[in-house]
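Data availability (excerpt). The following record was deposited with the supplementary files.
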Amino acid sequence: MKLNFIFSIFLTFSALLSQAQRIDAENISFQILKEPVNAVEASNRNYSVTVNSPYNITKEDAIKEAKAKHQELVDNYDKSVEDAKAQHAEKLKEYEADVKKLNEKYRTESEQYNKLKTVEKIAMNAMPPVLRLPSRPQLNVPQKPVYSDPDLRNALIVDNKVLASQIMIDGYSRGGNYIDISVNMERTNFQDNAGKSFASQPTKLVVKQGGTVKIDKNLFSDFEEIASSPTNEINLGSHEKNYLQKVIARINDILAENYGFSKIVSTVKLESVKNKGEYDDLEKAHIYVTTNLKKMQAKPDYTPNKTAFENLNKGVEIWKTTLKKIDYNDKKALFNGKIAAYLYMNLIRLNLALGNKTEAEKYLNEMQEHLVDLKLSYDQNYELKALEQKIYN
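Predicted structure:
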């Protein structure tokens, strides 16, 4: 009887072990060439750039501008001294008024304190008043302006040809006109708001592909903060140079996204469930995805990549089909919340690794709808927040 009971417990324990869902993780390293939004045949991968801007600044112009600003400071020096004295006089009046109020308050509090008996002072825990006066304002007279040649390393020395040379598409040859890039920009505009500096630089980007307009964008029309100090306290030349480079960088990013091939070298964590029999399809999906990721090469027009993608997507389709079988209300179900969690995490991780943020966000949103039922661990919640940041940043 005792042996039968022990044997029964053993069989029950073995059955529980056989139903347990063991999730293993594997890191897969791969490389891939991300295709551009607008495909261009290899024979037509050439471009030209035309920039129209008010910039035609030479070294002599930079020195001339520095001397003009110095002369402006010299011309305004006497007035700046008078303004400083006037401000100091106003602050003195405010100081004397504050001192008078504080002395009166101190005298009144002292009289009230002195009227109290010792017993009352102890009962009220009363302390004698203390007179605290503010510091007397000091006159700060501006120093006389002293001229120094501008640091040409930070000076904005640029013209339309220089700007055009900074705009490029990797993998394409400059000089053809199949991709025709036209940039029209204004000079950087500065303004003050709440003691901070803001800038804008309205820029029009038009890109034609074989004569057809593919990109037509207005950039940097809105003012954005560039410094926590007003414009009269910052080096406008240096900030204009930096802002102009920001505009060029944004144009290059748009061109790269639409026409460039970008090499992705990445490592992605993918999970799988290891129970034999019940999850053979999921095991097959894991093999499809991992083996075909490893086959991919970061080469343009590489034919084997197409086959690898097709086979990888077979695994992804199995994941998506399995998600439709999930029973979120039964922890003991074959396809329960634990299985759903690892599948959703796989889909989010994989799409992020492949540069597909839109797809990653789609599965993130689906997963969030079931978070109450999934009962994620601390580590899973921590990783999910990190994935969210990658999607939205």
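Summary of structural features: Residues 77-115 form the longest helix (39 residues).
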